Amino acid sequence: MPLELLGRKVGMTQIFTESGDRVSITVVQAGPCTVVQKKTEESDGYCAVQLGFEDRKEKHTSRPLLGHFKKSELSPKRFLYEVRMMPDEASELAVGQEVGLEGTFEEGQRVDVTGQTKGRGFTGVIKRWHFSLQGRSHGTHEYARHGGAIAAGTYPGRIFKGKKMAGHHGAERRTTLNLRVERIDPSRNLLFLRGAVPGHRDGLVRIRTAVRSSKEG
Questions:
Q1: How far apart are the C-alpha atoms of 68 and 80, rounded to whole Å?
Q2: How far is it, in rounded angstroms, from Cα 110 to Cα 175?
Q3: C-alpha closest to that of 51 among 86, 4, 16, 108
Q4: CB of 148 within 8 A of CB of 134?
Q5: What domains, with CATH codes, occur in the chain?
Q6: For the chain, which has fewer Cβ within 10 Å, the N-terminal or C-terminal residue?
Q7: The pTM is what?
């Protein structure tokens, strides 16, 4: 599998393409990520590369993790994650090597971005599930934003699991597929993606090569 990068969502803007079209762009600061550990099929049962993102002070790092980083002769990292890779792909990476946009992504290709959506707290069915409002006439007072009946009468005598009701909204892991890479700025580790990316500004995102082919080609 291709290498994945961890980054932060910078924000949204607009750019003009070569054809003169104005498109919405999400700017992501992707990497640089550092190779902390390599796992092999002989010692771990699978082949993967462990990457670290963003530096962290030693006083804020637990002793087991400090020992883990000192074994690789690296400074502590705030985030650690693994990427499954083929043995021939992993052999091209070395512990301590920094991985950035160059050689990982290129302009025009499609990527998938995973992030955590914005948390909206406890919301009702109108906002959470886009239910229609009830009529406000003929004596209706406090029930215009209610969901109505939630179950049958005598049988089955209970509410089925998964019923759309009020509850916690947002703060869920979501992946947006097939976003086009419009521009790349390797000097500042900036990735310009066409479209929206899950999460709030400065939120953590994970970028990978698209796993499904796009209809646009």
A1: 11
A2: 13
A3: 4
A4: yes
A5: 1-30+103-118+171-217 (2.40.30.10), 33-99 (3.30.160.810), 122-170 (no CATH)
A6: C
A7: 0.81
